[in-house]
């Protein structure tokens, strides 16, 4: 199966052909995928070199002229390193762009901590007006990329990962999907963690919601699910643990509830290892998730089907 990032350049190259407003801004990363597009659209495929602050600033400048810039590099270089430009050049000037990241929280362990960005979504949460898509499959990435580029002049972040579920679902860029229904609690699985959550909750009487658009947070779907399944909620996110707990608490502010946020821990893992080893070390593999989910729900009398 191809990866989400494998889909990125072909999809955006087609969008360059279809829409004269679309431009692509790169900082060396990913240039090979746009070689043909650059020959066809030399004025709309721009490589600024290894200058990530300029990467975002150039995208904002294009947006000020009416273009729809798609800005791409690793997450740590796209959100964290040029955060001031994200905050001011895009947010303060109130212009839009589509930021598309690669490497996610720890997709390239050999790159070390400089190439890891578990805090990217939490950092964007400090700013107003961002839509955040976290696809869990290449098909979903293609859908959400098209949705992001076509979203008027909004500010959109699309978080791509080499981690993937086995199959893509029909996502719409807004709502959570109900994948499994139960009565003993709600587990929200974000993006590429759906398969692990489904394995972890097999036999448990819980509702599983699937989220690929996490900002704006789909409060209505969570409220409906808790009305039927009980007000204990577990959020399982492929980035910093607890990133969405405030959003879930706000969604359920008028009802008694408990929320557990699972995700990437704050501690730095100082060995390269593999992606799978990082997943397990952060407790995001199916076995660890089952222990943590059942332990949390046990206090509410979660039911397990025989």
UniProtKB/TrEMBL annotation:
UniProt cross-references to Pfam families, sorted A to Z: Transket_pyr
InterPro entries associated with the record: PDH/Transketolase, THDP-binding, Transketo_C/PFOR_II, Transketolase-like_Pyr-bd
Annotated ranges, domain Transketolase-like pyrimidine-binding: 2-168
Domain of life: Bacteria
GO terms assigned for molecular function: magnesium ion binding
Gene3D superfamilies with a match to the protein in the record: 3.40.50.920, 3.40.50.970
SMART domains with a match to the protein in the record: Transket_pyr
Official protein name in the record: Transketolase
